[in-house]
Amino acid sequence: MTSGGSGGVSRLNHHQMNTQFYHVTIGDTDFQVLKRYQNLKTIGSGAQGHVVAAYDIIRGESVAIKKLCRPFQNVTHAKRAFREFILMKKCHHKNIIGLLNVFTSQQTIDDFTDVYLVMELMDASLCQVVLMDLDHERLSYLLYQMLCGIRHLHSAGIIHRDLKPSNIVVRSDCSLKILDFGLARTAGVNFMMTPYVVTRYYRAPEVILGMGYKENVDIWSIGCIFGELIRGSVLFPGGDHIDQWNKIVEQLGSPPPIFLDRLQPMVRNYVVNRPRHTGYSFDNLFPDELFIQRHSQTEPTKLCNAQARDLLSKMLVVDPEKRISVDNALNHPYINVWFDAKEVYGSGKPTLQYSDLIDDDKEHTVEVWKKLLYKEVIAWMTRSQSIDPMTLDHRLLNGQEEYTEENGEENHGAMARAPAAAAVTNSTSQVR
């Protein structure tokens, strides 16, 4: 079954649609959703969840609903689920996917197994856009929006850590949003990247080699995506982490001694004893024939192949200390034709820091993460009047469990792939 609905919805009032649930099976996944969401149709599924499109009767618009996949099967999944919800709840930016609602049909902590995140529905992911021919105007505008979204996350102390085409979605007007924050974590300290982080093809050299990382690990990923949009295929399709490193140095060249000196001894020994590569110039890696030779309808002299290659050469730098920053990328000639201070810098008000919401180094059991997320979901549903507070376990809502006030812990507080569509067919934005 690929779609679902519930009869007699027209006879329900607003309160009933927002509080009553119905069951529908999409593919091999059972959904227990509020009656306000009708005509469910599958979009896609992955390790983190199953995503469907639905029509929200109350809002009068189509939305995406992500059912998290077995969020409490282990500590890693439980922490990811809590992290993704908190970040989506707190991040408000036009280039970050918006969280519209969250719900569960289970009203006790013992029964709590399912979490549903309701998000904006977009037209396609960049997986589909990669297959299209994009001119400089559309390429630069998509890249500008990625950088604006990432800058917003970084200003809040968040490193995304898993940027890839399937985690970036677009509409047919060329507007873009970043999603899936289950792997994001605190910035500001050189952390060792955990093994499961970042899809291999978009993994930065400092991650592959076990070095510390900082915000510009996301810049490498954006550079890989940018190059893929131009070339129409993955830049560094490594079969494993060693092959991934080989693919990088074969194209970009072996790193200099100043970089090798920062590696751990065993890693350095391996890298030094590999065959050396001189790499290729970016003129050879991205020749003119890869670019769509189409004049911009707005400012044809602003954007050109040389500018695109220059930005790529500054993003795809093996040494993170020499890689371009987000701010400098936004001011690059290939990007700054779109520059709008309100989009780049936001309201100017201090951004709530991610570290104030989640302590990434805090070790909890699955049960504690589950209780923390349950408390957040129920609080949301209570505020949105999707649940009757009288039916709840008030020990949790009143902070009487051992994991909250007694331990001095505060109440801390992905639509994955959108359907293929005729995305980015026209750029309605004007070059600024």
Would you write up a description of this structure?
- It is built from 15 helices and 15 strands.
- The protein is α+β, with helices and mostly antiparallel strands.
- The chain has two domains: 167 residues, 2-Layer Sandwich (Phosphorylase Kinase, domain 1); 221 residues, Transferase(Phosphotransferase) domain 1 (Transferase(Phosphotransferase), domain 1).
- It has a six-stranded antiparallel β-sheet. Strands 9-11-12 form a three-stranded antiparallel β-sheet.
- A hairpin with a 4-residue loop joins strand 5 and strand 6.
- Helix 2 runs parallel beside helix 14.
- The longest helix is centred in the middle third of the chain and has 20 residues.
- The C terminus is likely disordered.
List keywords for this structure.
432 residues, alpha+beta, Phosphorylase Kinase, domain 1, Transferase(Phosphotransferase), domain 1, 2 domains, six-stranded antiparallel beta sheet, three-stranded antiparallel beta sheet, 15 strands, disordered C terminus, kinase, MAPK, transferase, Ser/Thr_kinase_AS
Q: In a few lines, what is going on in this structure?
A:
The chain is an alpha+beta fold and 432 residues long. Helices cover 31% and strands 15% of the residues.
Main β-sheet description: 6 strands, antiparallel
Q: Name the CATH homologous superfamily of the largest domain.
A: Transferase(Phosphotransferase) domain 1
State mean pLDDT (0 to 100 scale). Answer: 81
Topology order in helix (H) and strand (E) letters: EHEEEEEHEEEHHEEEEEHEHHHHHHHHHH
> How does the helix and strand content classify structurally?
alpha+beta
Report the CATH C-level class of the largest domain: Mainly Alpha
- How far do the termini sit from each other? 47 Å
Uncertain regions spanning at least 5 consecutive residues: 182-198, 397-432
Q: What is the correct CATH architecture of the largest domain?
A: Orthogonal Bundle
**Morphology call:** globular
- Indicate the percent of residues in helices: 25-40%
Major sheet: order of its strands? 1-4-5-6-8-7
Per DSSP, the total helix count is: 15
Domain unit count: 2
User: How many extended strands?
Assistant: 15
